[in-house]
Amino acid sequence: MKFVDSVIIHVSAGNGGNGCISFRREKFIPKGGPDGGDGGDGGNIWIISDLNMNSLTDYRIKKIFYAENGKNGFSSNRSGKKGKDIFIRVPLGTRVLNTENKSIISDIIYKNQKILIAKGGWHGLGNSRFKSSTNRTPRKKTNGTLGESKIIKLELILIADVGTLGLPNSGKSTLTQALSNAKTKINNYPFTTLNPILGTVKIKKKTFIIADIPGIIKGASSGVGLGIQFLKHLSRCRLLLHIIDITTIKKKNINKIRLIILKELKNFNESVFNIPRWLVFNKIDSLKKKKIIKLIIYINKRIKKNQKYYLISAKKKIGIKKLSKDIIEYLYKPNI
Fold first, then answer.
1. Fewer CB within 10 Å, N- or C-terminus of the chain?
2. If one looks up domain 1-157 in CATH, what number appears?
3. Is position 188 annotated in a ligand binding site?
4. To the nearest whole number, what is the mean pLDDT of the chain?
5. Is 191 annotated as a binding residue?
6. CATH code 3.40.50.300 for 162-331
């Protein structure tokens, strides 16, 4: 099933019911007076978080939502029934946007979070409301007001503490699996990961969520490849892991490989570019000890001293425990 992370929907709350004009007519009570009841309020439309959802696929086809109108008032001071509310369920991380001015209406990031997105119309008043000492037989009532109608955009931005970056086949999915419980399709061809995947890492009583997005290639920010459309899913991350396949270093300078990703990040969004990044050199199981020592010397000469980096093998789970431990310490460090 196609992963859907952005939809535009039309929501219309219910209209308020009209008030009623009625007079009490009973035997032996010739002047019973006004007894027209109020209408019912229109139904509201709410957006509510749902932990069991992970995409906006449900709204790929169904895009229009109407809440029920309030019923009109009745005689004998009986009020009309309130219209039923509509609840639109969305996954955690959904951002609700105003399509007119692109402003953010709300971010759905909490369990059981509920926001009123379109308010139902107010009920009309029956003629019994207008009775007074000077007007014993009022023939006045009010109609219910219209419910709110809006066109909104739902945009899913996954909630993850750590995100992975890298060229296709750098080992991002293998690393995500090695660190967490995520299950992703892995093979030796470009764009094995077609959708962002979330995994949970737990060490003792501390946890973090890691996101695996499709690989990014040169020109991604201008629409080449798949990764750029999913980069927004890294915007909530507090740490990024830039995965580099060490077997490609033989052919290219480390900084050239890094800059392919960094340039696309910067072109996409400055705030994502500024998220702290650690370098993770993967597939060291393909090298002998002497070459690993030479690689470390090579890396130290070409990156900044304060740049944090790791040598790992996601496939053989070499260096994974150290990486996991350091991520936990970083995320749980006070004031981070």
1. N
2. 2.70.210.12
3. no
4. 86
5. yes
6. yes
